[in-house]
Amino acid sequence: MSAPGATPAATPRVTPKAVVVTVWRQLPFFIWLIALWMLLWGQFTLLAFLTGLAVAVVVTRVFRLPPVELSGRVNLWWGLVFGLEFVLSLVRGSLTVAWQVIDVRRQPGTAIIAVPLVTDDDLIMTHVAVTASLIPGSLIVDVDRDRRILYLHVIGVRDASEVETQRRSVQHWEERIVRAVGSRAQVEAVRKAIDSRVGDRRFAG
User: Fold this and answer.
1) Paired strand residues for 112
2) Is the same domain home to 47 and 98?
3) In 3D, which of 152, 164, 150, 153 has the Cα closest to residue 116?
4) Of all helices (H) and strands (E), which one includes residue 112?
5) Which DSSP category does 30 fall into?
C-alpha cells in the first residue's frame, strides 16, 4: 500500500521502436534454433521447418530463460557464405568418415585437441561448438569458458600437422560465425587474430 500523497510509479512505456529492436536482436537466435532442429533431424522439409518453428516458440516463450543479448548486427552475405561452407563440409565430412570406415588398410587416428577461440561471447562459442559437432568426424567433449577453449574428439588424424589442420578448421568456423552475426569489435578481434596466425605460420616456415 502506498503512502498518502505518494505519486504512483509510472509504468515504463513500450514503444514500437523498442519492440522492433528487440525482435531484430533475437531474430538470429530464433532462426538458429529452427536451423538446428532441422539439422538434428537431417530433414530440410516444410514439416521439419514447422516443427522447428513450434519448438523455437516454446523454447523462447514458454521457458522463461534470461534474454540472450545479441550484437544486433547481421551480415547476410557472410551468413550465406557460412551456410554454403557448412553444407559442403557436411557432405565432405560424411564422405571422409565413410571412406575411413571401409578402408581396411589403415585405422583412422583419433585425438583430443584443444582449440583456443578469440571471442568470449557465450552465444558465439555455442554456435562454434554446435557447428563443429554437427560435421562428421569431430565432436565437442568439453568447454573451458574462462580460457575460451573448446576441446574436441576428432578422427582421421595421424600426425601433428593434421591435428593443426583440424584446429584451424574450428577457428575458421569461429571467423565465419563472427563475420555473420558478431559485433564490429568481435569482427576486428578475429581479423587481428587471423593476421597474427598467418604471420606466425610464415615465421615458422
Assistant:
1) 153
2) no
3) 150
4) strand 110-116
5) H
Task: Point out the domain boundary residue: 42, 70, 98.
Answer: 70
Inside any domain, residue 44: yes
Q: Are residues 152 and 188 in the same domain?
A: yes
Residues 155 and 131 in one domain: yes
Q: Any idea what DSSP says for residue 65?
A: P
Instruction: Tell whether the model's pLDDT for residue 202 goes beyond 80.
Output: no
Instruction: Name the nearest CA neighbour of 134 among 189, 178, 90.
Output: 90
Report pLDDT digits (tens) over 35-94: 888 877 878 888 888 998 888 888 777 765 555 555 557 788 998 999 899 999 999 999
Cα distances (angstroms) measured from residue 52 to each of 31, 58, 125, 130, 150: 9, 10, 22, 17, 27
Enclosing domain of residue 90: 72-204
